[in-house]
Amino acid sequence: MIETLAPKAPDPLLKIIKLFREDTRSDKIDLGVGVYKDSSGNTPVMHAVKDAEAQLLATQKTKTYVGQQGDVDFLRLVGQLAFGAMSRDFVSIQAVGGTGALRLGCDLLRESGAKRIVLPQPCWPNHPSIVRAARLEPIDAPFFNIAEQRIDMDALIGAFAQAERGDAVLLQACCHNPLGADFSLEQWKTLADALNARGLIPFVDLAYQGFGDGVDEDVAGARALLERVPEAVIAVSEAKSFGIYRERVGALYVKTAEKARAAVMSNIAAIARANYSMPPDHGAAIVREVLSDEALRASWRQELDQIRTHIKSTRAKLAAERVNSIPMHLIAAQKGMFSTLPLNQDQIIVLREQHGIYMTDAARINVAGLRHADIPRFVEALRAVA
Ligand code: LMR
Questions:
Q1: What CATH class is the domain 49-294?
Q2: How many CB atoms are located within 10 Å of the residue 231 CB?
Q3: Residue 12 CA to ligand 1 centre (angstroms)
Q4: Cβ of residue 13 lying under 6 Å from some atom of ligand 1
Q5: Sign of the C-alpha dihedral, residues 362, 366, 372, 373?
Q6: What are the tens digits of pLDDT across the range 57-95?
Q7: Cα 366 from Cα 239, distance rounded (Å)
Q8: Which has the closest alpha carbon to 265: 13, 45, 68?
Q9: pTM for the whole structure
Q10: How is the beta sheet containing 137-142 ordered, strand by strand?
């Protein structure tokens, strides 16, 4: 039987990573995978993370299981960081990265009777795969005009009509991947009203807290939404905010009525148990140590501030350049790691093959991975194709 399996197309992002690795040109530029790089092109381990690891090495007494829900102190601290006081009422479970949290959330929604998830397009390329793997139907909602780099709220809310009561809408909390275009506070409130009017559940994906305008600023909109809706599912990743990508640190939070919380907890626990049983500990333990120690927390905030400042300076430098058909100036106001340029397939291939510049097939660039020293060459190459 197994020998009859048809091959699957490689994941579009992982394909770009592979192509970049195989390119032998020394001046190639990697704008593919979403990883922050400093001005020398490195992704160093944060000092606070190193110190937390040293502390864990010195004090950890056992490697026995933490428990089905995972590290409850980690869940409390991350909940507080992301949602403030209201997180005390959320049901939560540690997950295997933000992706694992998204999958748990999809499975929970399906168990609760949802059939569809509305995906504002373009979305993170892995979102539709996760939704389908959970046997839910992804509904594409137009949402962003790439040529004009503008959110179209009417189109997005209009697409809610394709969903039914109990279905969900996947919304990125901040630093949108792949657009860098975030909702304003007013737009979040409008979304809350539109979701409530149709009985749709917001499924919030928070993966870049601190990469946009600041730790609190980046979640102000999502908090405003969460205050206004009766139920919500939220997937959180700490991979980027703590620079611990490979540790796969995530969590799922669920807002629901008090009387439903025990049942929701038992459902997410059962889903996780049948999937990977109990979560890994190390990454969550790092985050717990950093957030619970005043000095480590301050050190982490400072490094995160530096990362954000660096990304903003890269955005400002790009925005100061003129490239015929690309509204470069709008890149400055966008948030976080990514922007998506109005480039077609031919242009993307020429950039890759002739100039050694790698971005996704949908023209997403990882602004956070662009070294300042490479900006002149990147802009020259854009001018050559666009
Ligand atoms: C990205 O979008 O580049 C990251 O989230 C990495 C991934 O797994 O796709």
A1: alpha beta
A2: 19
A3: 10
A4: yes
A5: negative
A6: 999 999 999 999 999 999 999 999 999 999 999 999 999
A7: 16
A8: 68
A9: 0.96
A10: 91-96, 249-255, 232-237, 201-206, 168-172, 116-121, 137-142
- Closest-CA residue, ligand 1 atom 2, reads 34
Domain layout of the chain by residue ranges: 8-45+296-385, 49-294
Q: CATH assignment of 8-45+296-385? A: 3.90.1150.10
Chain Cα centroid distance, residue 363: 18
Q: How far apart are CA 38 and CA 148, in angstroms?
A: 30
| Dihedral in degrees, nearest 10, Cα atoms 372, 377, 382, 385 | -170
Q: ω into residue 178 within 30 of 0, thus cis?
A: yes
Contact predicate 47/296, CB 8 Å: no
Of 342 and 39, more confident: 342
The Cα 138–Cα 147 span in angstroms is: 24
Ligand 1: nearest atom to the Cα of 360: 3
Report the separation in Å between the CA atom of 174 and the middle of ligand 1, taken as the mean of its atom positions: 15
Which ligand 1 atom sits nearest the alpha carbon of residue 177? 2
What is the three-state SS of 26-80? CCCEECCCCCCCCCCCCCCCCHHHHHHHHHHHHHCCCCCCCCCCCCHHHHHHHHH
